[in-house]
């Protein structure tokens, strides 16, 4: 047993497992042996074998009236349930530890931190913050610095879920400092992984990847399957931000296809993969991913993340022109938000923004502006930029002679530049090009449209590419350049045909029925006939 513990502390889990099994062959009534074996099997995602070992350990401890031993088994079983997304079962185990008067403070503090973790995963941030704060206070009182560091990470994650990035980073940084001072390798890796997640939310992919790569060797060596999956998810999202989409999809698929990945990690990988396909404008494939993600989250009864899957499905359905289905899923997402304890301001703003886009596509200008203005108050710079695009473009339709619409479109471009995201920048410029055309500034419309066309065509974003060709053609015609207008119109139709090949006839034909797209298609046909 002592040799096994030494191997385990050195993260040599296979050797440790062999030692524990040999010890149990010599003494089959050794509760600690079954407990340690169960912990290692849990890390390797062998949950059935792990739970069997925990049951054996609990029976032995119970016969010996070893209450601390029983409490430790319940704690470890709860951790296993938490990893498997069996939230109710996990909470029951942790609550039994906290309610056990003979459980020691160390066990009770860890149980509080695990309850905080469960609450965070369910989007219950008040509960997560409450339990993490209690655990930190008790750990400091008992001078348990390692647990205090653990608590700081849990508290930081509660702030991260509700997008309070400043407080999240403060707690993660403090935990990292404490863990390095105390040589707590597990907490150091956790803090680094959490900082990686934070940097993704802050749109800083290089820093995110750097944090994760520092943590990954510890998790790989120790066989921490869940944490390895989470690291791959972060690296995948960082690759998306760097526009390395193939690398991103490989990272997500590695999690999706791993039998050792948890259901929630597979669900998140499918959602992240779908988001990557949206960036590439491969909407039918993205829709399939989001629907699979939603089904997985529903199987876990995790309404928090199910709401996000519903939103992204709605976004794709809007792009494809299936407005009623999009509205239905948005309504379901809204219901989840209204019934939950966490207001999720980011998701709420995204729903307003999508409602604005649907309204603009249907030429319902009043609703488009009302919904977009509710989004514009967001602290999320990319979303604020996109809201100004909607507001500005709508204003150019309503009153082409006013400069207000163009000024909002220009502001949106300036905001998008701050994101360092080429797709968002060019999308904002494409909206500006359309705004220029609506207000009669055909020279700037032509120049801006051709600039964005190069980016979209070269990056394979065909849906935006054909619309850029169209604006260039329309602007050329207004400038009296029928030859180039005809050429650009033909290129728009040619690019649109490629979109049909990529999506398939079923999706493409519905897309063509969108009011704005249907009008644009007719305009492209007329240009091609000049």
Question: What is the C-alpha radius of gyration, as a whole number of Å?
Answer: 27 Å
Q: What order do the helices and strands follow?
A: HHHHHHHHHHHHHHHHHHHHHHHHHHHH
Count of separate DSSP helical elements: 28
Residues in β-strands, percent: under 5%
Structural class: mainly alpha
Given as residue ranges, the uncertain stretches (5+ residues, pLDDT < 50) are none
How does the major sheet shape up? none
Helix fraction bin = over 70%
Mean pLDDT across all amino acids: 91
Shape: elongated
Distance between the termini: 86 Å
Kindly state the number of beta strands. Answer: 0
Chart the SSEs and their pairings.
Blueprint: H1 2-9, H2 13-26, H3 31-43, H4 47-63, H5 67-83, H6 87-98, H7 105-121, H8 125-141, H9 145-161, H10 165-181, H11 185-201, H12 205-222, H13 225-241, H14 245-256, H15 263-279, H16 283-299, H17 303-319, H18 323-339, H19 345-361, H20 365-376, H21 381-398, H22 404-417, H23 422-438, H24 442-458, H25 462-478, H26 482-503, H27 505-511, H28 515-528
Helix pairs in contact: 1-2, 2-3, 3-4, 3-5, 4-5, 5-6, 5-7, 6-7, 7-8, 7-9, 8-9, 9-10, 9-11, 10-11, 11-12, 11-13, 12-13, 13-14, 13-15, 14-15, 15-16, 15-17, 16-17, 17-18, 17-19, 18-19, 19-20, 19-21, 20-21, 21-22, 21-23, 22-23, 23-24, 23-25, 24-25, 25-26, 25-28, 26-27, 26-28
Verbal overview:
With 530 residues, the protein is mainly alpha-helical. Helices cover 82% and strands 0% of the residues.
In short:
The chain has 28 helices and no strands.
Q: Which keywords apply here?
A:
28 helices, Serine Threonine Protein Phosphatase 5, Tetratricopeptide repeat, mainly alpha, 530 residues, single chain
């Amino acid at each position: 047993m002592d040799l096994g513990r030494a191997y385990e502390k050195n993260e040599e889990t296979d050797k440790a497992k062999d030692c524990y099994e040999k010890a149990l062959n010599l003494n089959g009534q050794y509760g600690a042996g079954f407990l340690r074996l169960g912990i290692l099997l849990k890390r390797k995602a062998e949950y059935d074998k792990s739970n069997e070992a925990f049951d054996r350990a609990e029976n032995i401890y119970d016969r010996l009236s070893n209450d601390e031993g029983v409490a430790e088994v319940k704690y470890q079983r709860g951790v296993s349930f938490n990893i498997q997304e069996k939230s109710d079962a996990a909470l029951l185990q942790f609550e039994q530890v906290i309610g056990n008067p003979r459980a020691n403070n160390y066990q009770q503090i860890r149980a509080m931190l695990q309850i905080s973790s469960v609450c965070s995963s369910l989007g219950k941030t008040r509960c997560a913050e409450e339990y993490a704060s209690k655990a930190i206070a008790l750990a400091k009182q008992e001078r348990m610095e390692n647990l205090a560091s653990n608590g700081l990470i849990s508290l930081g994650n509660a702030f991260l879920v509700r997008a309070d990035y400043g407080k999240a980073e403060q707690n993660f940084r403090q935990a990292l400092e404490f863990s390095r001072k105390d040589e707590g390798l597990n907490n150091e890796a956790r803090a680094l992984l959490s900082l990686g997640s934070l940097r993704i939310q802050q749109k800083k992919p290089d820093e995110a990847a750097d944090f994760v790569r520092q943590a990954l060797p510890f998790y790989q060596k120790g066989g921490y399957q869940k944490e390895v999956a989470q690291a791959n998810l972060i690296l995948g999202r960082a690759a998306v931000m760097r526009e390395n989409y193939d690398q991103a999809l490989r990272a997500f698929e590695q999690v999706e296809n791993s039998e050792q990945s948890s259901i929630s990690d597979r669900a998140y990988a499918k959602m992240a993969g779908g988001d990557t396909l949206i960036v590439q404008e491969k909407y039918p494939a993205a829709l399939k991913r989001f629907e699979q993600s939603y089904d997985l989250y529903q199987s876990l009864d995790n309404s928090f993340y199910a709401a996000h899957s519903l939103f992204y499905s709605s976004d794709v359905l809007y792009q494809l022109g299936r407005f009623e289905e999009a509205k239905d899923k948005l309504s379901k997402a809204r219901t989840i938000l209204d019934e939950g304890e966490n207001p999720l301001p980011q998701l709420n703003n995204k729903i307003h923004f999508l409602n604005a886009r649907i309204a603009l596509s249907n030429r319902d200008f009043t609703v488009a502006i009302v919904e977009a203005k509710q989004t514009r108050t967001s602290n999320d710079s990319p979303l604020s930029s996109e809201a100004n695009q909607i507001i500005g473009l709508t204003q150019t339709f309503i009153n082409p002679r006013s400069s207000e619409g163009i000024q909002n479109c220009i502001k949106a471009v300036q905001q998008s530049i701050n994101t360092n995201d080429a797709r968002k920048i060019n999308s904002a410029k494409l909206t500006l090009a359309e705004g220029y055309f609506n207000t009669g500034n055909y020279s700037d419309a032509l120049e801006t449209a051709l600039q964005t066309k190069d980016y979209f065509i070269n990056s394979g974003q065909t849906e935006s590419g054909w619309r850029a060709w169209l604006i260039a053609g329309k602007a050329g015609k207004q400038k009296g350049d029928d030859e180039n207008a005809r050429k650009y119109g033909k290129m728009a139709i040619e690019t649109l045909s490629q979109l049909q090949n990529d999506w398939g006839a079923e999706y493409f034909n519905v897309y063509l029925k969108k009011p704005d797209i249907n009008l644009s298609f007719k305009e492209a046909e007329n240009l091609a006939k000049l």
